[in-house]
Design a protein that fits this description.
Elements: E1 3-12, E2 16-19, H1 20-24, H2 31-37, E3 42-45, H3 53-68, E4 77-81, H4 92-100, E5 106-110, H5 116-129, E6 136-143, E7 161-171, E8 176-184, E9 192-194, H6 205-209, E10 215-217, H7 219-240, E11 250-253, H8 258-268, H9 279-282, H10 289-297, E12 306-313, E13 317-324
Parallel strand pairs: 4-5, 4-6, 11-12
Antiparallel strand pairs: 1-7, 2-3, 6-7, 8-13, 9-10, 12-13
């Protein structure tokens, strides 16, 4: 069986910045609380009438195609991870494909909340490893501002908008997605969800009045699960692959809370400079946090580097992937 390697990465962050000062004018909070409890200074917001997650996703994919010198018609599959699709249907992947001129691919969305990129990477790399397809785009795009309640101080400082995309191709070399440990436990449902707008509680005046079309999160409970479950899957993948704190070159954690990231890095015994952290600038962009980190650190990554990726999100769904980086930055 061949390996599936990432041969390019790109991201897109919208220009508009929402600072802690801006948020403290909307709800009873302040920069000090948000920085100490979460570690976010500002986040990006997609503004503009009629623009949804596909706007972010298509810009990341366009940049990916440009950087990798790939023509749109060469792409065979487009997988889009998002919790904030443009519409309930059709898929955001199909809209991104159309905007990018990708005409010879089939395209579909996956929904694994903040773990969407991790789940997408495992499943999309399977399409390549199995020999079915040679050029697969995985894009994660989130307009989190579309389901954030800016009158709720417990959730509104946390989220931002953004997108990241990778190209997956086959390789004979021992590089790429080496191993994955991914779990789902439905115990998470009452603690982290959007209560209305789905088939259980279709949109109505009443549930909109109750703000049920926004993110609902019981932060303290989610925090505990996030730390223990991500740490366990990271330690599991390190042990399975004989990785140590010395042989892990980069740790790429979901950017939900700086305290969660630091707690896991401590358990891995990793030094700070090996940990990708940009939560301060972008907040939690849900499925998009990992590819946005990879794009930002791309120039530092070397062929053969050992990366450990980890995420935790609604469901709950969480896990870790061991990835061997496949190219030196140009
Ligand atoms: N400003 C000031 N005070 C606040 C704010 C705010 N923005 N928000 C909450 N508080 C107050 C609370 O009211 C509470 O006050 P009280 O003690 O008087 O009741 C106090 O601060 C502590 O609140 P907690 O909720 O316990 O705060 P905590 O330290 O847990 O931080 C947070 C909250 C940031 C949400 C944290 O729990 C967290 O990061 N949870 C995990 C998030 C996560 O990983 N989510 C998964 C991915 S997201 C996804 O899948 C969509």
């Amino acid at each position: 069986m061949q390996n599936a390697v990432i041969t390019g990465v790109a991201s897109y962050l919208p220009e508009d910045v929402l600072t802690n000062e801006d948020i403290s004018r909307m709800v009873d909070t302040n920069d000090e609380w948000i920085m100490t409890r979460v570690g976010i200074k500002e986040r990006r917001i997609l503004k503009g009438e009629g623009l949804g997650s596909s706007e972010l996703g298509y810009r990341a994919v366009n940049e990916l195609l440009r950087k990798t010198g790939t023509r749109p018609e060469e792409i065979e599959v487009v997988v889009c991870a998002t919790s904030t699709p443009d519409y309930r249907f059709p898929s955001t992947a199909s809209i991104i494909s159309e905007k990018c001129g990708i005409k010879n691919a089939f395209a579909y969305d996956i929904q694994a909340a903040c773990s969407g990129f991790l789940v997408g990477l495992q499943t999309a790399s399977g399409l390549v490893k199995g020999g079915l397809y040679k050029k697969v785009v995985l894009v994660a795009c989130e307009k989190m501002s579309s389901m954030t309640d800016y009158s709720d101080r417990s959730t509104c400082p946390l989220f931002g908008d953004g997108a990241g995309a990778v190209l997956l191709e086959p390789s004979e070399e021992k590089l790429g997605v080496m191993d994955a440990v991914i779990h789902t436990d439905g115990v998470g449902l009452p603690h982290l969800l959007m209560k209305a707008g789905g088939s259980v509680s279709p949109a109505s005046h009443e549930n909109v009045d109750r703000h049920e079309h926004y993110i609902y999160q019981e932060g303290r409970i989610v925090f505990k699960y996030a730390v223990s479950d991500m740490a366990a899957s990271v330690l599991d993948i390190m042990e399975r692959n004989n990785l140590t704190m010395d042989t892990v070159d980069w740790f790429v954690p979901h950017q939900a809370n700086r305290r969660i990231i630091e707690a896991i890095a401590r358990r891995m015994g990793l030094s700070e400079e090996k940990v990708m952290v940009n939560i301060e600038k972008y907040g939690n962009t849900s499925a998009a946090t990992l590819p946005i980190c990879l794009a930002e650190w791309e120039s530092k990554l070397k062929k053969g580097d050992n990366l450990v990726l980890t995420t935790f999100g609604a469901g709950f769904t969480w896990g870790a992937i061991y990835l061997k980086w496949a190219y030196d930055a140009k």
